[in-house]
Amino acid sequence: MIFTPEDHTFVLCAYGQSPYLEDCLRSLAAQRVRTRCLIAAAAPSPFLERAAARAGVPLRIRNGEPGIGADWNFALSVAETPLVTLAHQDDLYDPGYTEALLADLSAARDPILWFCDYAELRNGQRVADNRNLRIKRILLSPLRLRPLWNSRFVRRRILSLGSAICCPAVTYVRPRVGENPFSTQMKVALDWDQWERQSRRRGAFCYRPDALMQHRVHEASATTAMIADHRRREEDAAMFRRFWPEGIARFLERRYARSEDQNRLE
Questions:
Q1: Which of 42, 205, 217, 245 is deepest in the core (most CB within 10 A)?
Q2: How many other CB atoms are found less than 10 A from the CB of residue 266?
Q3: Domain that holds residue 218
Q4: pLDDT tens-digit profile of 213-258?
């Protein structure tokens, strides 16, 4: 199937008053291949209304209690296109992001989702290489081979060793992932949970090994906050148990926890 720019929407998931939100919106507007864009939030605020008006994009409000899973499910539901990227308000997308996803998904056989490599933004600086990023790239390296995109065995082996896929780098094929695909019970590992459940299905996990977006790491980020209260360790352990016996799962979780240090700013 050939996908066109009319088939894709960026839905920017917004909350609070992020000082980086408008930078993210500008990066979406700067795509070489322009597609649709809107903002989704759990509750209205003058801050978001002003940002949406300045960017000239629609604002969709869920009018419910904040919750990551519910917010992401709502964000997926308000898009009217088959391809949706849930953009995180603190992150930046390189100009070639949409161009790459449309090309790869058009060439794929029965795609479920597409994702790319990423760099980090730390203290305003792009970091393209560190230990955490290298480990994730090694884990994902089998998917550099397009014939393996449709291999359930390969992607489940990758996921059994951790969540190497960067959530804001992902574009979903909505008809394949279904309604309300994100858990409302998990707070941190709901993306890994989603990949694990989708990995059981027939279809393609499409991977572009180019760093086409930048994920911001800062003290106010949701990931950093969750690591601070150790919720991540509890949910990571639960995820490893889906693949491994208890003893191996505990061993992997302890090793995996060391990567938490990469989300702390020096």
A1: 205
A2: 5
A3: 5-263
A4: 999 997 665 555 555 457 888 899 999 999 999 999 999 998 888 7
